Amino acid sequence: MNRLKLPPWLVLLLPAIIILSAVVLIPLVLSLYSSFTSYRLTRPDSIFNWVGFFNYEKALTDVKFWAAFGRTVLLLTVALNLEMLFGLGLALMVSKVTQGQRLLRTMMMFPMMFSPILVGFQFKFIFNDNVGLVNNALQSLGITDQAIPWLVDGQLAMFSIIFAEIWTATSVFGILILAGLYAIPRDPLEAAKVDGCTAWQSFRYVTLPFLMPFIYIAMAIRSLDVARAYDIVQIMTNGGPARRTELLWTLIGRTGYVDARMGYANAMGYISIFLAIFFTIYFFKKLTQSRKELGMGA
Amino acid sequence: MKTLLSGASRAVLATASLTAAISAFGTAQAGEFDGVTIEAKLIGGQQYEALYARIPEWEAATGAKVNIISKKNHFELDKEFKSDIAAGTTDWCVGSNHSSFASQYPTLYTDLTGLVDKGVVAEFVQANIKAATFDGKLVMLPRAQFDVSALYYQKDLYDDAEKAKAFEAKFGYPLAVPETWEQVKDQATFFADPPNFYGTQYAGKDEAIVGRYYEMVVAEGGKLFNDDFSPAFDSEEGKRALQWFVDLYNAKAVPAGTTNYLWDDLGNGFASGTIALNLDWPGWAGFFNDPSSSKVAGNVGVAPAPKGSAGVRTGWSGFHGFSVTEDCANKEAAASLVEFLTNEDSQKLESAAGPLPTRTAVWDYISEQAKDDPYRREVLAAFKETAATAFAVPPTPLWIEATNLIYPELQAAILGDKSVDDALADASEAVDDLMQEEGVY
Amino acid sequence: MASNLNHRMRRYTLKGLHFFGLFSAMMVLCVPGLWIVLNSFRPTVEIMAKPPVWIPNELNLDHYRAMFSGIGEGGVPVLTYFANSLVISVTSTVIAILIGMAGGYAFARYKFNFKGGMFVGLMVTRAVPGVALSLPLFILFARIGIIDTHFGLILAYVALNIPFTIWLIDGFFRQVPPELAEAAEIDGCTRWQAFWRVEFPVARAGIASAGIFAFLTSWNEYALASQLTRSTTSKTMPVGLLDFTSEFTLNWGGMCALAVLMIIPALILTFLVQKHLIAGLTFGGVKG
After folding, report:
1. CATH code for position A219
2. Cβ B87–C143 below 8 Å, yes or no?
3. C-alpha triplet A181, A185, A186: angle, nearest 5°
4. Which of A91, A99, A100, B304 could form a disulfide with B385 if both were Cys (CB 3.0 to 4.6 A apart)?
């Protein structure tokens, strides 16, 4: 018997590699190819119409594309940072509670139970300017006598989307950072107390460095996942009005499916994949680094 | 045993329901399609599904079976059809279709002209048949889901003597249900009391606002596209039409969020009692007058769509229908199903719940039925009047794509990011680029 | 004495602030969700009312009744969607966990070339936006003929969940000193037995937390499901939500009722396994 013997690690990784190749890699190759064609969904033959870098040129010289690109980066940066801050605050407050933690933790994770598409509808109605919950509340409380156009105004529309995104995702940060808080060894904190550190100092110099890996993990998970925001944005504003909330994903989705220009959509998709990969790798680097600083790295 | 059974069922059908079958199914004959299975992709949603309960009747009559392999809402279905064309999985047979979207699938559906009897086609409203014909191909038979918009309004606004006096003093003509869009603008501004009450509202995004703009351009005497599909809306008429939307927005006569509204927001808005005048679809008539869903129930009036300055009524219209795919293995059976789903009985069933028919005889039938219901009579009269001069979207496969280029510019003008002139010039240029890139001219 | 009082005042203030902060945070997190639950019991005319109806005049089960009734009378095949969702989410979670365990074990226990690169490579597959993936995936699945099947969606979700499970479980196995398993092997266990008796129990919490994340992702996923499912044979609940919309209308109350049915199982599950979840995240993610 001369059987091919694979190393055990490869055998163990094989199922993962096979499935990911089948479901992610092959489709990606397919869409990479189509990004060099003038492929239109409604004219299947057009997939053989090679146009070289035409689609990429078109995207890279298009002001609308770059505006959407910038807005996406802005959304990612603002949302991820705020989610991190709120998650941190939330985790700190929950960890200080002595009774009913179990219930509080479940409440904290409540938004994670909501499908992104549901979140989209939910906030579309909550932020409706005429019969929405927020404006009704503000008007009933006498805070304003205006109908605030949450989903239309240049700044507020982005705010509303970021709010919805933060609402769904803060839980992920909260729960990860909470896990980190539970794992903090008591000794350094006590030592800090003995040395006369203020609460702020012991937080800043003991707790926070210890939490950093957890924060980067959450960042990495979220940056893997943010494209989920597509469902939310698509329902809430679909990139409008007047392209004020246009993100890469809404632009790509519309170009690909509604306009049926898959070739062009895939070219833009590839540029956005690089953006996602950049964010992911960036946070992984940060994670490894902070692990090393804590002496936990492998 | 099997043959015996099918033979028996055939016999039963032949004797028991011979006359009924022949009268109801026209050309279809009992047992004609024994053993055939028709795969269908149908539009889902409450308004559309009551009709599908009739399918077993067709199955029993023809011996064929219908297998519904997809049921989704209209926009999801559109995405699915495009994906199907892309993947080449188009050997299912019957699909729901829409007149505004049909031109996008030039290769998907077959020409029904040879498959459906000429006499049957003649029984439909001919304007609808025309809108279902692309490049000489009749791609679908319309069902009783014809859509054109008429003006819903709150009746009591016109009963108030003081309001009437104040209005006349300000505008110089008596307050009455508006017949022109100019009057709608005056009255909407007059009634508006933001943030509690608005004069009117309009759909503000996607194809919806382009459709509204399109009918307004036509009502102003202009055209959206020239005959070669080059853009024609960057014109005096086009500017006047857009200015109407801009003026209402600036006067705060429409809700501030209107540029993010789609049909459901508009319907819910009018039902909440905060909108005076509302150009909307026939499907809402029942909803608006039902106390469990609407606060304006009992206070709803319906008038034909107003006219623009050219004396033309707005009347952007569309309808749902059924098509047969080019790759269908048994087109005769599929066409028979399509015919059945759009026949007189089917249309009577559907239009009994509110939607408008596309067969001449059924229009007469429902008018007769509504004799004793004043609200329903008013609704039908208004829509019938509007339907008489209704028009479909420009028949180009690039229609939807063009709307995606136009609507952000319309929004920009409404929100004040651009002037009307700039917005239309930009939109026109973008559409022109698209048409040239696609080799339309 | 005075400083003592001062001190106590400070503590009370802090406590008050803490309570207030926690309360408002929980309000923000829960109110939008509870609003959905409330809407599912209210007639449409009250949900969209203006002036708003703050104290419901009427709560009823109409939306639920309609949802379970026949097609055409407001009915939606909820139970079928629920069953589809359950089968697809549970199966894909279990498979993702098994594959994740194998993969995590490989990363934790073996040394090989390009390990770091491979790891990041696996992670990056998750970063591909669904919009860019859905069409080629659809074409591929359509060619193999697994559109609108449980299998197709399960396959997609397994792929979606593998990167994160590998990552979390990898960290966990690193917690177990290799000597432990080696000792067991010396005691006469096979490698396989040693794994199940020694290493697996330690990693259980990590598996639970990977499991809940995987389950929630599959349970709530929409973009791929809307592309890969078509009829009641495989449509899941998030896709089913769209049954309440049609070209012109949207039945928000009905949608809320279905949403409640989606949320409850997820909530119960989370409540039950959250202890493991916390422990799992602690070790799995970081300490590796």
Report:
1. 1.10.3720.10
2. yes
3. 100
4. B304
Query: Does any domain span residue A76?
Result: yes
> Residue C1 — very low, low, confident or very high, per pLDDT cuts 50/70/90?
low
Q: What pLDDT is stored for residue C73 in this prediction?
A: 64
Contact A31 C166 (CB under 8 A): no
Give me the domains of chain C, ranges plus CATH numbers: 2-66 (no CATH), 76-287 (1.10.3720.10)
Domain coverage including residue A200:
56-293
Of C132, C280, C282, Cβ closest to residue A269: C132
Quote the pTM value: 0.88
- Residues in B touching C51 (Cβ below 8 Å): 196
Q: Give the neighbours of chain B: at least 3 Cβ pairs within 8 Å.
A: A, C
ipTM of the complex: 0.87
Of A63, A47, A53, A57, which is closest to residue A251 (Cα–Cα)? A63
- What CATH number should be reported for the domain whose range is B2-147+318-388? 3.40.190.10
pLDDT at B304 over 60: yes
- Report CA-CA distances (Å) from A105 to A91, A95, A210, B247, C15: 9, 9, 21, 51, 19
Contact B259 A135 (CB under 8 A): no
How many domains, in total, are found in chain A?
Answer: 1
From chain A, pick out residues whose CB is under 8 angstroms from the CB of B108: 42
The contacts of residue B199 (CB under 8 Å, 6+ apart) are B187, B188, B189, B190, B191, B192, B248, B253, B254, B275, B276, B277
Position A7 in a domain: no
Residue A20 within any structural domain of the chain: no
- Nearest-10 Cα torsion for B399, B402, B404, B409: -140
Query: Facing residues of C250 across strands?
Result: C245
Q: How much is the average pLDDT of C186-192?
A: 79
**Alpha-carbon B233 to chain mean position:** 23
Residues of chain A with pLDDT under 50: 1, 297-298
Whether pLDDT at C285 is above 50: no
Taking 60 as the threshold, does the pLDDT of residue C130 lie above it? yes
C4 three-class SS: helix
| Domains of chain B, residue spans | 2-147+318-388, 150-316+398-437
Cα A176 versus chain centre, distance: 15
Q: Flag whether residue C32 sits within 8 Å of chain A, measured between CB atoms.
A: yes
Render pLDDT for A36-73 as a digit per residue (tens, 0 to 9).
998 888 888 888 889 889 999 999 999 999 999 999 88
Q: Which of C48, C123, C156 sits opposite A224 (nearest CB)?
A: C123
Burial class (CB in 10 A: 0-12, 13-18, 19+), A123: buried
Cα C214 from chain centroid (whole Å):
5
Contact C129 A269 (CB under 8 A): yes
A15 lies in a domain? no
* Residue B172 CB contacts under 8 Å (≥ 6 apart), including other chains: none
Q: What pLDDT is recorded for position B375?
A: 94
What are the pLDDT digits (tens) for C13-63?
Answer: 888 898 899 999 999 999 999 999 999 998 888 887 777 888 888 888 888
Q: What is the pLDDT of residues A13-34, one digit of tens each?
A: 999 999 999 898 898 888 889 8
H/E element, B144: strand B141-147
